[in-house]
Amino acid sequence: MDRSAIPSEIKREVRQRCGFGCVFCGWPIIEYDHMTPWAETQRHHASEITLLCPNHHADKTRGLLPEADVRQANANPRNTRVGESAPYAIHGFRGTTCTVSASPYVDFYANIARTGERLILFSIDGVVPIEFRLGADALLMTLRVADKEGNTILQIIENELVFSVAPWDIEIVGARFTVREAKRDFFLDMRLLPPNRVEIMRWSYSSKFGRVDIGPEGLRLFSVDNPRITIRGPGKLVIDAALGACIGENSTGLGAGIGVP
Ligand SMILES: [Zn+2]
Predict the structure, then answer these.
(1) Which residues pair with 190 in a beta bridge?
(2) What angle do CA 187, 202, 231 make, to 5 degrees?
(3) How far does residue 30's CA lie from ligand 1's centre (Å)?
(4) Rounded distance, CA 121 to CA 257, Å?
(5) Residues 211, 97, 27, CA angle at the centre, nearest 5°?
(6) CA 154 to centroid of ligand 1, rounded, Å
(7) H or E element: which one contains 81?
């Protein structure tokens, strides 16, 4: 019998059970492992599949990691034990310009060597949930993603990614990162494209001062006092500014591409 692909529903069940990372080390770049070799079972049951990082998977395949040890780690996965993922370093962001796409219709671009060494996508009454900063030998990305109650569920602090195991699903496939609350309900859908580009297809950030919504229909900015601003196609708008959009008070000292007072 040919080995068939693992159905996506089963993969998700395995990710949820294992805390979205290698059951030994918590690393979020994972492979699916049939704890009993496929040749013996020839079936995909979520309870018989676990998550291993490429290193631990290679050890198991070479016979350097006994199946019993894998089962033991699977019974108490590292990330669910700790409550969050092991830190993952994002490599390769560098240069003096960067672009962040916020929906298919808006590119925030900045030459940050020229414009104050930071590209801040949004400032909401002084809070900056996403930015790039020019470090000594790298571009440093910072991003905070929270749930509706304001709990941090994923953060990248200067290129180091950590996420909570609380969301319904977290998946990293190639350069695409998705965090979901339910089947079609995205907290975040983005692609990291080093050396100097990030594409955010879905993300919402809100505070009591305002809200930013990025989705397939475009970019929407709200402030508490003003009607929303919506930017959508057919064309693409490129905003060349160190502070892309400012909602509320501007305490960054940078000129804003879009202001929502
Ligand atoms: Zn591992």
Answers:
(1) 177, 200
(2) 135
(3) 8
(4) 10
(5) 70
(6) 20
(7) helix 78-82
Cis-peptide into 195, omega within 30 deg: yes
Ligand 1 centroid to residue 56 C-alpha, Å: 5
Cα(106)–Cα(139) distance, integer angstroms? 21
Cα(34) to centroid of ligand 1, in Å? Answer: 15
CA dist., res. 179 & res. 172, Å (int): 9
Distance 130 CA to ligand 1 centre (A): 29
For ligand 1, the distance from its centroid to the CA atom of residue 27, given in whole angstroms, is 6
Write down the mean pLDDT value for the chain. 93
> And the tokens for 104?
């298919």
Using the mean position of ligand 1's atoms as its centre, give its distance from the Cα of residue 81 in Å: 15
Question: Is 30 in contact with 22 (CB distance < 8 Å)?
Answer: yes
- 91 C-alpha vs ligand 1 centroid, how far in Å? 19
Say how many Å lie between the CA of residue 29 and the centre of ligand 1: 9
Distance CA 210, CA 256 (A): 16
Residue 139's contacts (CB-CB under 8 Å, 6 or more residues apart) are: 93, 94, 95, 98, 112, 132, 133, 195, 196
- 99-140 pLDDT tens trace: 999 999 999 999 988 777 889 999 998 889 999 999 888 999
- Residue 161 CA to ligand 1 centre (angstroms): 16
pLDDT in tens, 129-169: 999 999 888 999 999 999 888 899 999 999 999 999 999 99
At 4, the amino acid letter reads S
